[in-house]
Amino acid sequence: MLPDYGIILLFLFLGIAFVASAFVVSWVLRPREPNPIKESTYECGEVVKGSSRVQFNVRYYLIALIFVIFDVEIIFLAPWAVIFRELGVTAYIEMVVFVLLLIFGLIYAWKKGALEWQ
Questions:
Q1: Which of 31, 80, 84, 99 has the smallest set of CB atoms within 10 Å of its CB?
Q2: Across the strands, what pairs with 46?
């Protein structure tokens, strides 16, 4: 049993040594005084105009989050539907509760106006 842990410790130490050596090498090889051209922003050869910070509407993120939630719902529903007959009544009730929870969440978001784009 001890040799098994020894192999794990060996891999752990080798991993730590590898990461530490990568940090040391990058610190040694880094440029000491970079010039202004190296510090400028590169955008595919285009001259940068204005600020790179662009503010997006928060509703975009809400729509994206709702999409991800229902996308995950499909990931859970597809395998369940394939073996529906083999699972029994308990799995059916669990999936009904899961879908109802998501429907209530959608209704809540709808009532709060998260789906309005104005």
A1: 31
A2: 43
Locate the domains of the chain by residue range.
Answer: 2-39, 58-112
Residue with tokens 């394939």: 82
Place of tokens 């190296």: 38
Residue with tokens 């009730």: 93
Q: Which amino acid is at 35?
A: N
CA neighbor of 63 nearest in space, from 7, 13, 15, 113: 113
Contact predicate 50/41, CB 8 Å: no
How many Cβ atoms from other residues are within 10 Å of residue 69's Cβ?
13
C-beta neighbour count of 12 within 10 angstroms: 10
**pTM score, two decimals?**
0.48
Q: Report the candidate in 72, 73, 69, 80 with the shortest Cα–Cα distance to residue 115.
A: 69
User: What 8-state DSSP symbol labels residue 46?
Assistant: B
- 45-94 pLDDT per residue, tens: 677 677 767 777 777 888 888 888 888 888 888 888 888 888 888 888 98
**C-beta of residue 99 within 8 angstroms of C-beta of residue 73:** yes
